[in-house]
Amino acid sequence: MKLVFTLTFLLSVLIIDAQAYIREGKGDYNRVVYTWDGKYLRQGKGSYNTVLFTFDGKYLRQGKGDYNTVLATWDNKYLRQGKGDYNTVLYTWDGEYIRLGKGDYNTVLYTWDGKYIRQGKGKYNPVLYTATDVIPIAVLIFIQ
Q1: Chain segment 86-132, per-residue pLDDT in tens
Q2: Entry pTM
Q3: Taking a C-beta distance cutoff of 8 angstroms, is the pair 58, 76 a contact?
Q4: How far is CA 21 from the centre of its chain?
């Protein structure tokens, strides 16, 4: 019984304190630019740094708070300006490419392969950021 309690406690501590890092350039040891904790995107490395955005799965909000100004709306394909499902489309996501505006044939700005955000179209282009864990694509698009 003690073993079960101990394992449960250790796993809960690891889950609660889980953070993902977005690092500049290519590499797992480069400078941390942003920290993602599942709800807040923070500047730099650390769980007490300034909160830049709050993301609840649909809305990206300014700063820390569920009632702050909505900067963008996400519907799993389009990142739209402000709050609303019919506002101007800033970026389109097709599963690999981040494109400017609305459309699957618009200019490719970035390529995302699950770990690296690369400039332009292609898996051999320069790496802008490295993500060390799962980070919502809407957050990665918005920081560009």
Answers
A1: 999 999 999 999 999 999 999 999 999 999 999 999 999 999 999 98
A2: 0.82
A3: no
A4: 10
CA distances from 85 to 27, 53, 66 (A): 36, 19, 18
* pLDDT digit string, tens, across residues 55-66: 999 999 999 999
Q: Are 39 and 56 in contact (CB under 8 A)?
A: yes
Q: Residue 22 and residue 92: Cα distance in Å, rounded?
A: 21
Query: What's the full length of the chain, in residues?
Result: 144
Give the three-state DSSP class for 139: helix
Residue 36's beta-bridge partner residues? Answer: 20, 41
Q: Show Cβ contacts of residue 88 under 8 Å, excluding neighbours closer than 6 positions.
A: 80, 81
Q: How many Å separate Cα 108 from the centre of its chain?
A: 18
CA distance 86 to 39: 24
Number of helices (H) and strands (E) in the chain: give both, helices first.
Answer: 2, 12
What SS3 state is found at 59?
A: strand
In which residue are the tokens 């320069």 written?
126
Of the candidates 80, 78, 17, 11, the one whose C-alpha atom is nearest the C-alpha of residue 46 is 17
